Protein: Phenylalanine--tRNA ligase alpha subunit
Organism: Novosphingobium lindaniclasticum LE124
Amino acid sequence: MDYAATGQEALSRIAEASDLDTLEALRVEFLGKQGSISGLLKTLGKLDPEARKVEGPKIHGLRESVSDALAARKDALETAALDARLADETIDLSLPAPEAPRGTVHPISQVMDEIAEIFADLGFSVATGPEIEDDWHNFTALNMPESHPARAMHDTFYFPDRDAQNREMLLRTHTSPVQMRTMLQQGAPLRIIAPGRVYRSDSDATHTPMFHQVEGLVIDKQVHLGHLKWTLETFLKAFFEREDIVLRLRPSYFPFTEPSVEADIGFTLIDGKRVIGGDPSKGEGGWMEVLGSGMVNRRVIEFAGLDPNEWQGFAFGIGIDRLAMLKYGMDDLRAFFDGDVRWLSHYGFSALDVPTLSGGVGTPA
Ligand code: DAH
């Protein structure tokens, strides 16, 4: 029997199939269980061996050419469908930007990026922790047991319920619990900063119930107070983009550091305005407190599961809002959180002003 005509007809119908559904119907018609070519294949079994030798290759050849044609046509139809979609779904990226771009980067976000950029250059990575904390991470592990008087200074917002481990839950009052979380997770050595929101029940012109801090922590072998002082000075010079930054360290007390120091930054008076920089002991000006710091208390290192005879470190906590006000000249902290678009369009930053060490961390607003 000659299958050429059957084959010809099948191939031309496949070539004419204009969509995938039609093609699928043809596949079923020829090669499906009840298909015509499948039917021919079944006849082979009933033939005597001699006839099978002759007919077999022909039927198989037919099946193969039809199946190849189906695959090729399917490929072509799919490519055409994709091309049509691509042509249909174009976006015109050449649309001009709006003349007056709306929306600005909040000074706090900008300053956090500036801080991260400067510390990244010193080899610090950014760590994070939850704003809803438990009292173990926020207080106990930082050497403030339940009866510690320093707890009372934190004006803490507590939640009514305890967590599964029966710990009191609270809004973190500082970024210091991230120290503990990072040491527990990553061990030592360590070099991190942890910027973020903190909460205290306090509100006036210089205090808001939510504000921002950045924590710093270095844990290594043979770390000493000199490293801390150099790090703070280097950071503040880069942040304020002035070489004449003068730092004054004062002895202080924090339960989680020993010894503890508070750092003041010198300002000078220019036309009655406070300008960061210069040495106040040599002229008109004064000192402004900008951060707390110290050598990490041995007890804290123990709470983190590390051996304090092997590992030491320093830590610091900086008020971000205060730094932003000093650098960019805002005088009321509360305006930071009012969401007033006029304030934001005046003090905000363009989304394109990404702080970089080469381009300058503090591009003027
Ligand atoms: N956690 C302190 C606060 O909120 C600030 C602070 C002081 C952080 C000394 C530190 C530190 O890491 O070493 O007032």
